[in-house]
Amino acid sequence: MAQGLIEVERKFIPGPGTEERLLELGGTLEHQVTFRDSYFDTPELSLMRADHWLRQRESSGWEFKCPGAAGVSGLHTEYVELTAEPAIVAKLCVLAQEVAPAKLIVYLQRFRPQDYQRLLEVHSSRENPQGTKDADSSLD
Length: 140
Description:
InterPro entries: CYTH-like_dom_sf, CYTH_domain, THTPA. Residues 6-91 form the CYTH domain. It holds the Pfam family CYTH. This is Thiamine triphosphatase. 36% of the residues lie in helices and 14% in strands. The chain is α+β, with helices and mostly antiparallel strands. Among the domains are: 34-95, no CATH class; 100-129, no CATH class. A four-stranded antiparallel β-sheet has the order 1-2-3-4. Helix 4 crosses helix 5 (113-127).
């Protein structure tokens, strides 16, 4: 069975004095890399809200990162990273398909906005008391 590469990334914030301590221990700066990423999304930030990240990295092309483990919600520890432009376009085409809202939701929005707002408030407080879920999108 062929084995692929696995990238492990761990981020940390060095404490005060870390650089000085590394120098004391004989550490040296081997090389430094600086790059610029430009991130792209819809005006509603639909990609970022779904934990998807489309970026163009200076001098290395397009990258698209999305959660890797199906059915996992919340913070992700595994992502799929696409770098081939045809694969990125194919994935975005699947995500950009608009889902029409339910007829009742449209009716309430147009003709009974006060009831629609109350529905959002009740749904939001039941679904997630901390307010981290977008209640409006889950009602569509």
